[in-house]
Predict the structure.
Amino acid sequence: MKKNIAVIFGSMSSEHEISCLSAYNIIKHLDKEKYNVDTIGIDKKGMFFKYTGDIENIGKNKWILDEKNKIKIEDIIAKLKTYDVVFPVLHGKYGEDGTLQGMLEFAKVKYVGCNNLGSSIAINKILSKELVESLGILVVPYKTLKINEYLKMDIKLKQKLIEEIKNKIKFPLIIKPNKEGSSYGVSKVDNVDNLIEKIEYVFRFDEEIIIEKYISNRHEVECAVLEMLDGTLLSSIPGEVISANEFYDFNAKYENKSSYTKIPAQCSKEVLEKIKKYSLKIFKKLRLTSLSRVDFFVSHDKIYFNEVNTFPGFTNISMYPMLISYDGIGYEKLLDILIQNAK
């Protein structure tokens, strides 16, 4: 008997468009002999709609304009309870941060992906770093700053902040929001001249930010982790991002076609094996389930943890499905495993 699946996409996240593209690819690859697939879109105001139109409109983010093929869902919990499995293809806030997962767990609806607890932990870059440090794994030197603390600073305190950053973090550095994905809001700062300006810019994206050392001459390495049907964990061969830009920002990820990925990553076998082991340790420490992509920086054979994505991109250029495929699990089989593991 076919399973009834609801694929959810969109949302209020800054990654709305990437979610639509990931969902489009997933819908295309779902085996229609095994699954009856409905598509549910969330607009940027947080309203849910059943979408019955051409899935090409989802990939092109034009579904919301297709008025005749979208029906507003008044009681989303009641609607989701009608499906065997819900497949939330959501990135960043309101989708990858445990918000939707909590609602689904409350409603006792089976869903694909990381649970509420792990999602909540992983989206918080600061908490993730603290937990990973407790494993003895290196993280890049960093400082955190909350907007309510910053707004109370007078000129003298701001100068003290600048001196602390200059002495403890050192330039160049990266400033990024604590709870964003796809490198939204990330800024590189080369000297003190525009430090305050960049701090205030990044506060537009989050109420808490991270100021961390920029590691030059680095490899940006990613490892996919997948929970198999028997409960064992697969950590993939690590792959490397070759960024067209100075760092792997949103433009480099999704817009600049000069960026590409290399599998395996251009690191020694010893480093690759360590990354695979570290990824499993981090997956367990952060209480993750189902799937995640664990990101690292490698510089002169030193391995630094960067962050975790609990629902990484599933576009046609996304690293996670490519890494899993390299280990012999194709896109369709990967989706089957994720759906069968839904809890």
About this structure: The two ends are 19 Å apart (CA to CA). DSSP finds 13 helices and 16 strands in the chain.
